[in-house]
Amino acid sequence: MTYVQEERSAHDGLTLHTIPTKKFKTNSLVLKMNAPIQEQTVTMRALLPYVLQSSTKNYDTTTKLRSHLDDLYGAALYVDLAKKGDTHTLTFTIDLPNERFLKDRTPLLEKGLQLLQEVLYTPNVVNGQFHEKTVEQEKRTMKARIQAMNDDKMRYSGVRLVEEMCEGEPYALRLNGRSEDVDGITTEALYQYYEQALAEDKMDLYVVGDIEPQEVTKLVTSIFSVPSRERARLEKGEQNKREEVKEVQEEQDVQQGKLNIGYRTDIRYGDKEYPALQLFNGIFGGFSHSKLFINVREKASLAYYAASRLESHKGLVLVMTGIDQKNYDQAVQIVNEQMQAMQTGDFTDDMVEQTKAVLKNQLLETIDTQRGVIEALYHSEIAETKQTLEQWIDAIQAVSKEEVQAVGERINLDTIYFLKGEETA
To answer: Are 315 and 266 in contact (CB under 8 A)?
Structure first.
């Protein structure tokens, strides 16, 4: 069974991905720019898409740009940031109605692609630098966004674990940049970085909806002109095995402790062992039937929440729990016991089969949305693999209990991070 039909074609420096489907009455146009994440540019890069979506040369205020979107039958424009391993991805999305369902057959797809091209290539620039008031407004918003993350202690503790665990590695850098770097960004420096990103980033355009791929290809060829470029190569390398587990405790004014634990796997998306690692994580802490959920949260009543997730392109297993401060030692012990149980094969074939079914259902739910379809496909693009979703499901189904245990034996505890309440005298 074919779940997603993807056609892929190269247009100099831009790769076009068309995904024709009759499941949706809207079309999604998603352009992704990917580059290695770097300390000296991460904050500018995090600011850039928000500046670009605020206004363009022809629509030089946010009000004018939003009014134009309204004229396109209420089209939506938004941007997003993501880290994929040691790379930083900027995403520009335009969602708009499918013209096939309009009475006047306005060429919305063409107009949407033209607007996406304008947002990216015809920004609001004055004398070789971005419009100053726009940049200053977005810098204020950016600092508020960073502060909001710091105030959300669940998110904050996850970020801090990664910073401690991957200290000195690009992956330690924060997705939204550093607050202390925001004020120093000038309109001229930001524009220079924008030109660099346009010239060097890996660029992928996804078009999902009830479309004709040949028609989309013609439109993209006529609207976009993206010079060829070579993708910056990232060396995978082996992850260093820490001689001693790193343990960090941080005090803040919090009522609930946040215990986050990081493990290294040295297995990434696209590796042959990756499907077994996904099953391992699902049984360990990924789902409600997992060992962490049942033993840490339900049986021992040690945690308000307990789960694990994979960082697919970095090869990390990250555990997140919320606990009472007094339960720190016991919680660390029982989490480690669940990892040891997985590594010694203390789980059943039924748990493996249940996790296979949940993973498959999770994928099918993901591709029920246009954004989900694109994100599922983009994993392979970043990993430079040609695995289809059908092949991914087949690979999951083929994993044995012994293979799940085998990947567990490769997993090493790296860092324990605990955010706790301030001690009173």
So the answer is: yes
Phi and psi dihedrals of 75, rounded to 5? -60, 155
Distant-in-sequence, close-in-space partners of 325: CB < 8 Å, separation ≥ 6: 257, 420, 421
- 35 near 88, Cβ under 8 Å? yes
Mean pLDDT (the chain, rounded) = 94
Beta strands per DSSP E along 241-352: 246-252, 257-264, 303-311, 316-323
pLDDT tens by residue, 192-242: 999 999 999 999 999 999 999 999 999 999 999 999 988 766 666 556 678
Residues contacting 245, CB < 8 A, separation 6+: 413, 414, 415, 416
Alpha-carbon distance of 31 to 224, in angstroms, equals 12
Give alpha helix (H) positions in 53-131.
Answer: 62-71, 108-121
Does pLDDT of 387 surpass 80?
Answer: yes
Q: Do β-strands 26-36 and 202-209 pair in parallel, antiparallel, or remain unpaired?
A: antiparallel
Q: In angstroms, rounded to a whole number, what is the distance separating the alpha carbons of residues 178 and 147?
A: 10
pLDDT beyond 90 at 359: yes
Give 305's contacts (C-beta < 8 A, 6+ positions apart): 297, 320, 321, 322
Candidates 397, 290, 392, 271; CA nearest to 339 is: 290
Helices (H), 72-212: 108-121, 132-151, 153-165, 179-182, 187-200
The pLDDT of residue 258 is: 96
C-alpha span between 131 and 186 (Å, rounded): 11
- Position 425 scores a pLDDT of 45
Phi first, then psi: what are they for 240, rounded to 5°?
-75, 135
For β-strands 14-20 and 7-11, DSSP reports them as antiparallel
Tokens of 361: 């259902």
- Structural tokens at position 334: 């029982």
Confidence at residue 338, expressed as pLDDT on a 0 to 100 scale: 96
φ/ψ of residue 256, rounded to 5:
-115, 130
Strands 412-421 and 246-252: parallel
